Amino acid sequence: MGQQAAYSVIQLKQLQAFHAVADAQSFSAAATLTHMSQPSLSRLIKQLEDEVGAELIDRYHRPLQLTAAGAFFYDKTQTLLTELDTITALTQRMAHPPKQLIIGFVPSVLYGLLPNIIAQLKQRLPDLDIQLKDISSYQQIEALKSGLIDVGFGRFAQRDDWVRQILLRHERYVAALPAKDPLALSAINPAPPIKLSDLTERRLVLYHQTHLPRTSAEQLNAAPLNLVETVTEPLLNLFSKYGAAPFATTTVSDLQVALGLVAAGEGITLVPDSLKTLRSEQIHYRTLLHEDATSPIYLNTLAQAPHPHLNDLLDIIYAVYEDKGITYRQFHPKKPED
Ligand code: BEZ
After folding, report:
1. Cβ(104)–Cβ(73) under 8 Å?
2. How far away, in angstroms, is 268 Cα from ligand 1 center?
3. Which terminus of the chain is less hemmed in, N or C, by CB atoms within 10 Å?
4. Is the CB of residue 317 below 6 angstroms from any atom belonging to ligand 1?
């Protein structure tokens, strides 16, 4: 292999002992949890402190606390230990190619093209055991790293060194209105597009469980930083982008409940275009004038060692888009020489 680097001689078991004691805030509780004796734990932590050259645990208070240096060291090494777990899980998966494909998805893609895509994938790969798991966009990142899912379809951009997000397309939002709403009863057929500012006198039903991360510019302008709420609700964010704000909002747990409330005449909401067949007796959907009032669809996958059937899945998705005349963005994996 490469040249021998001068790594620190800190040992993994010393780090694990330190984290166990820090988490339990007690040597005896950590000893029970780790099945080690208290003297062994103490010895490992003492060796670690000698190696680092700093006292990490304040042993004079109960429950035990970390020193300032210890808290810093804990934070930084936590990232290391998590990375090591991820590396181990990925290495195991590389060594044992999976016979199954576990697909995570957010509900809004299930009501659109997902069933068609899965049916075609099963036809192409009849021996592959395909499983589906509903899971929010944010949870998909950790689920990919831990092996809970192999790929995920989500609607939020996220940043993680281990994960690649393949942008499939931007899907237009449409307004969902109760059938009796005056805006649902357009005299013109087909009904012309409406603006978000036409909807501000209605109650907006919000259903996203995850919010948009703020841009770093927004974060920098907000002070003090540690008190800032770092997320925004996607639909409200969209309204504000067009200088509009609904007079009232109601927040519910998911999309189906939101559409139920709209059907009951309790408010309006915005949904991705592929959902406009849902509850079509009670809900009228109207196109929005704003071309960039859209919701992205991402295919989330591991950046390294993606599932061996990822390309089959992408082929099928692009074929479905072609077949339906949907505008999309094709992903070209980088060749090794690029
Ligand atoms: C889509 O609507 O573009 C889509 C839905 C599910 C999986 C992939 C793509």
Report:
1. no
2. 24
3. N
4. yes
pLDDT band at 230 (very low <50, low <70, confident <90, very high): very low
Token readout for 118 is: 């899965």
| 3-state percent helix, strand, coil for the chain, nearest multiple of 5 | 40, 20, 40
* Ligand 1 lined by 314 (C-beta under 6 Å): no
Q: Which of 86, 113, 126, 212 is nearest to 169 (CA)?
A: 113
Cα 69 → chain centroid:
33
Q: DSSP letter at 210?
A: S
Torsion of CA 318, 320, 326, 327, to 10 degrees: 0
Whether the CB-CB separation of 264 and 258 falls below 8 Å is answered with: no
194 neighbors 175 (Cβ within 8 angstroms): yes
Cα of 297 to ligand 1 centre, how many Å? 7
